[in-house]
């Protein structure tokens, strides 16, 4: 039959209470403490990850702004270089045109000088030939001073004729 033994029930209650006490002391409290610490660590990591994400977004925006600024500076430098190059080009072209004009003027003056000298030489030669021809025609000798006088007169008259034309 079934009998209830109070003495055994009391000992089982005492044993169960001791078991619960030790399990609570040795197992449940460290386990709860570990879980609470782990939960706190996870929350800290999530908060840190969120702040890192915010900081990364801020740094990304700063980098984008720095890149945009650098692009604008490069564009400004390029435009300044183009402007400088155009100004230098204009300066060189103007200088070349001025040099060309100077060379043409100098060459024209040289040509005009050579032309004038050749004309004068030609007129002197014509004057001398005319004098020699005249001497032969009239068979008389003209001294050098008279010859030079005749040549000079002829040159003067030739110049007057060429200036009239």
Radius of gyration: 61 Å
Instruction: Provide mean pLDDT, rounded.
Output: 86
Number of strands: 0
Strand content of the residues, in percent? Answer: under 5%
Order of helical and strand elements: HH
Q: Which secondary-structure class do the elements indicate?
A: mainly alpha
Termini Cα gap: 169 Å
Low-confidence stretches: none
Query: Count of DSSP helices?
Result: 2
Major pleated sheet: none
Cα shape: rod-shaped
Share of helical residues: over 70%
Q: What's this, in brief?
A:
By secondary structure, this protein is an all-alpha fold. It has helices at residues 6-138, 144-164. The model has no long low-confidence stretch (mean pLDDT 86).
Overview of the molecule:
Helices cover 93% and strands 0% of the residues. It is mainly α. The chain has a domain of 42 residues. Helix 1 packs across helix 2. The longest helix is centred in the middle third of the chain and has 133 residues.
How are the SSEs placed, and which strands pair?
Elements lengths: L5 H133 L5 H21 L1
Helix pairs in contact: 1-2
Give the tags.
165 residues; mainly alpha
